[in-house]
Amino acid sequence: MKKIYTMTRAILLLSFCLLIFIKPGHTQATYTEMYFDGYNDLMFMTDFYELGAEYTIEFYFRVDSIPTNDDEGTFWNFHGGDFSPWCGISSDSSISVYDYDDYYYWTESGSILPGITYHVAFVWDGDEGRLYLDGVLHDVQQIPLTIPDGYFTLGDTDMDGGYPLDGYLDELRVSDTDRYTGANVTIDPLPWEFDSDTYVLFHFDECEGQWALSNDELTLFLGTTLDVDDYDPTWHCSVGMSENNFENNITVYPNPTTDNLTIDLGTTYSDVNINITDITGKSIYSNSLHQTRLIEVDLQVGAGVYILKLYSEEHTASFKIFKN
Fold first, then answer.
1. Are 87 and 124 within 8 A, CB to CB?
2. DSSP class of 115
3. Which residues pair with 124 in a beta bridge?
4. What angle (nearest 5°) sits at the alpha carbon of residue 66, between those of residues 131 and 43?
5. Which residues contact 130 (CB under 8 A, 6 or more apart)?
6. Is the pLDDT confidence value at 179 over 90?
7. Phi, psi at residue 16, to the nearest 5°?
8. pLDDT of the residue at 83
């Protein structure tokens, strides 16, 4: 009996240690994100102005794979005629920020795992720079990174060969202030709002067309040809269908919605069943319809994420619905 008690105690102690030292990552930051395929995907913004004495550049990311053979993957990169400054992931599973090929800020080796969403913030307060990973300060230096006039890229550089990202970017914000101070900080809750200190804010929730537009009327271009390479990253927006084997495309709008929802099946079906559940699987709406193409739903539920499923005799489709 004493032996069993000792073993149980050891297992509990080990579990406690694991809880201390294994820090879980975020789930996906939002349900819309930008995917970069690890080859030549690039987004760029022209006419980025020089940031002031204080600034913060922050975003969420998730990688499918860690770069190998001393390669790197680009999160963001400013160009002022030179390759600088730059932020990305290195082959030792760390995050680096540097200028003119000199590493100035970095997280510890092995700090990034594939498939986990992380928040990264680089802050310059006029006297020192701070690099945060998930709200924890990883590096402090008194070496300024000058943000030049020119253009701003995401997911790669336009240098010969480049440093392409294999993964996702989400919720990117550039601010004219030092938003985070101290060793452990609370990350601003999502969704981030466009306030007086915000210069650029991308939710990556546009989905339609090949551009993203911030509240400051700045355009981030896609599908542009630079030299001989075609750069065309892809929005992964859950406002689109996550599953559909109906004969036609199905449109669900508006999504996000405040109350009413319209479902256009693309053609008339003799029998269609609809079911909406919350993320726990609890049903909040169901209906059976006959000889219908357009379905109107009055979604009288609280704000959150919901799952819409459609069934006919031989077809199924599912969508994520966002209620504001």
1. no
2. T
3. 55, 129
4. 70
5. 121, 122, 123, 124, 137, 139, 140, 180, 181
6. yes
7. -65, -40
8. 62
- Token look-up 């600034």 returns 55
List the end-to-end C-alpha distance of the chain, in Å, as a whole number: 56
Domains in the chain, ordered, with CATH? 32-237 (2.60.120.200), 242-323 (2.60.40.3080)
At 46, list the tokens. 């022209």
Choose among 313, 312, 287, 314: nearest CA to 298.
287
Structure tokens at 316: 């199924």
Q: What's the pLDDT tens digit per position in 46-86? A: 666 667 789 999 999 999 889 988 789 999 988 755 667 88
- Tokens 């990202």, residue? 165
Q: Which tokens hold the place of 89? A: 């992931």
pLDDT at 296 > cutoff 60? yes
Whether the CB-CB separation of 277 and 300 falls below 8 Å is answered with: no
∠ CA 258-210-238, nearest 5°, is 40
Distances (CA, A) of 258 to 14, 165, 254, 287, 310: 47, 35, 8, 20, 21
